[in-house]
Amino acid sequence: MVGGWFAGDGEDFRLLGTRCSACASVFFPREDAHCRNPECPGGDLAEVPLSRRGHVWSFTDSRYRPPSPYVTNPELPWEPHTLIAVELAAERLVVLGQAVPGVTVTDLAVGMEVEVVPGVLHEDAETIWMTWQWRPTGVAV
């Protein structure tokens, strides 16, 4: 898990971004040093929870094993997974993430509502690496 990128469980699970006090721009991943908006004179950055729901902006599936720092066991065959770019209208952001297991590109359509849920990126005998995943609304985890 990357610290500070998300928090909570169940219905309280949220991605965490930052909002600039001067221009109201929202950033994800979070920004803790300075406002990234080139038009902004700069302001204080405050942590904000992002919307739990958004709409599919685009999607695809991964047909190749990504390079490091992505964690995989090279001895196991690569299993494609679905990636979804989700528009969070209130924040004016598009956030990329994996779909929950079992959701494929044939299950998705641009404009479909999805929600963010916790998911497992990778696990071994000692560690479980957590991440966020997108789930079409109305689909059980």
Structural features, described:
This protein has 141 residues and is mainly beta. The chain has no helices and nine strands. It has strands at residues 6-7, 14-20, 26-27, 45-49, 53-61, 82-88, 93-99, 113-123, 128-136. Strands 5-6-7-9-8 form a five-stranded mixed β-barrel. Strands 1, 2, 3 and 4 form a four-stranded antiparallel β-sheet that branches. It is globular and about 50 Å long. The model has no long low-confidence stretch (mean pLDDT 90).
Short description:
Helix content is 0%, strand content 42%.
Number of strands: 9
Q: Quick one: overall form? A: globular
SSE topology string: EEEEEEEEE
Uncertain ranges: none
Q: In angstroms, what is the radius of gyration?
A: 16 Å
Mean pLDDT: 90
Spatial arrangement of strands, main beta sheet? 5-6-7-9-8
Output the structural class: mainly beta
Task: Count every helix, treating DSSP H or I runs of 4 or more residues as helices.
Answer: 0
Beta-strand proportion: 35-45%
Distance between the termini: 19 Å
Biggest sheet overview: 5 strands, mixed, barrel
Layout: helices, strands, pairs:
Layout (H helix, E strand, L loop, with lengths): L5 E2 L6 E7 L5 E2 L17 E5 L3 E9 L20 E7 L4 E7 L13 E11 L4 E9 L5
Parallel strand pairs: 7-9
Antiparallel strand pairs: 1-2, 2-3, 2-4, 5-6, 5-8, 6-7, 8-9
Q: Which structural traits does this protein have?
A:
single chain, 141 residues, mainly beta
